[in-house]
Specification:
Layout (H helix, E strand, L loop, with lengths): L1 E6 L3 H10 L5 E6 L20 E2 L12 H7 L2 H11 L3 E3 L4 E4 L4 H14 L3 E3 L4 E7 L2 E6 L4 E4 L1 E4 L12 H7 L8 E3 L3 E3 L10 E10 L2 E13 L2 E3 L1 H11 L7 E6 L6 H9 L15 H10 L5 H9 L1 E8 L7 E3 L20 E3 L13 H19 L2
Parallel strand pairs: 1-2, 1-10, 2-6, 10-19
Antiparallel strand pairs: 3-5, 4-5, 7-8, 8-9, 11-18, 12-15, 12-17, 13-14, 13-16, 14-15, 16-17
Helix pairs in contact: 1-4, 1-10, 2-10, 7-9
């Protein structure tokens, strides 16, 4: 029986342990630095656990070829596997998949029950500080100088989000495995403009990301104005594309506050209103948002007013930090692993899966799907090598 150690009890680590635990050939241990496994899983999808999405395309991830990895264990297989564990899943109108309970606790309970039934050992409050490979054995040392030994080692430590003290990157760097620069992703965007007057207001809008007058991405949905930036799902999506830019200079957001009405319609509608110019937006925009738009005008001109409503400019300063981010952008270079097995190229029997890798997706279940897919690819290769 081979000993398998999985460092990290998050989505990918738990899923991998469940997959491998069906075989009697492995003695599996999960080492988790927190007081219990799956804590980050509980906050995914606003606590509802957005498991996956039926609308999978290459544009959903920061690397086009990630979709090939996803297709090895796609959303259909994901749903089938969770159902085999006893979890019922539903889809919403956007194709997002959730447990019928709309509770992440249900998903975590199903995974933990499977591990308990199959006698997987979960050791919590254990932070691994060092890893060595000696005579085909991995020797791991924790913060209390306790050693653990395994034949197969899987790093599923997660990213910097939710757990800012994550040292997975330090561990892989000590093993001479390269990582990219890290950025917070699926998080709001800071802007240079002062938005204090409209802080905490929400509206449905379309936002376009531009760099040097070139459109990078556009999305539509609810946005939340903050004192110095934007939040909400649309901003999170924009942030994913912003953080993929190698050079982030001269990035601007153009906000369309009335995306369901075209320019000509609004000009005609406002021109026929029998009221003073400063009251034209009454009944059209929230009062404080209307006031903010008026302050940006250079002239009392309806055409200029409509243009601003449809193209309100905001200059990006940066994204917000890891404390509020949902996903880490960057991580272990994919050149360091074999993407069809998840095994590292430099060290045999060492695998890296999940958010620790340089893979990030947009909102909507795409990041959890990568966790499931990468774990499945890893499990299949471990089993094939048996």
């Amino acid at each position: 029986m081979k000993k398998v150690i999985i460092v990290g009890g998050g989505a990918s680590g738990l899923f991998l342990a469940c997959l491998l635990s069906n075989s009697p050939n492995y003695d599996i241990t999960i080492l988790e630095k927190n007081d219990r496994v799956g804590k980050k899983l509980l906050v995914t999808g606003n606590g509802k656990c957005n498991l996956s999405n039926i609308n999978m395309t290459k544009d959903c991830y920061n690397h086009e070829f990630v979709i090939d990895m996803i297709n090895m264990f796609d959303v259909t297989k994901t749903i089938q596997y969770f159902k085999s564990l006893g979890l019922l899943i539903k889809q919403d109108e956007q194709g997002r998949c959730y447990p019928v309970t709309e509770s992440a606790n249900t998903v975590l309970d199903i995974l933990r029950n499977t591990l308990e039934t199959n006698h997987v050992n979960c050791i919590c409050n254990t932070k691994i500080e060092n890893i060595k490979k000696i005579n085909n054995k991995f020797i791991l040392t924790d913060s209390n100088n306790k050693n653990y030994s395994s034949d197969i080692l899987v790093l599923a430590c997660g990213g910097k989000t939710y757990y800012p003290s994550c040292n997975g990157y330090d561990l892989v760097n000590k093993l001479n495995i390269k990582t990219t620069k890290l950025y917070p992703s699926l998080v709001g965007l800071k802007v240079k403009e002062n938005l204090a007057s409209i802080e905490n207001l929400r509206c449905k809008a379309s936002i376009s990301l531009y760099q040097n007058d070139k459109k990078i991405y556009e999305d539509k949905g609810e946005i939340l104005f903050k004192k110095n930036g934007l939040s909400g799902i649309v901003s999170f999506q924009i942030c994913s594309y912003y953080n993929r830019l190698e050079n982030k200079d001269n990035c601007t957001l153009l906000v369309d506050l009335l995306p369901d009405y075209d320019n000509d319609y609004l000009v005609n509608f406002l021109s026929n209103r029998h009221t003073s110019f400063d009251k034209l937006l009454d009944g059209i925009l929230l009062k404080m948002i209307a006031k903010y738009v008026y302050k940006q005008l250079k002239h009392n001109d309806i055409n200029e007013l409509v243009y601003l409503i449809k193209h309100l400019p905001l200059s990006i300063e940066s994204s917000y930090d890891f404390n509020t981010a949902q996903v880490t952008s960057g991580g272990v270079l994919l050149d360091e692993i074999n993407i069809t097995t998840m095994e590292t190229k430099k060290i045999k029997d060492l695998y890296i899966i999940g958010e620790l890798l340089d893979v990030d997706g947009i909102c909507g279940g795409y990041n959890l799907q990568f966790a499931w897919s990468s774990a499945s690819i890893c499990a299949k290769h471990i089993e094939r090598n048996e």
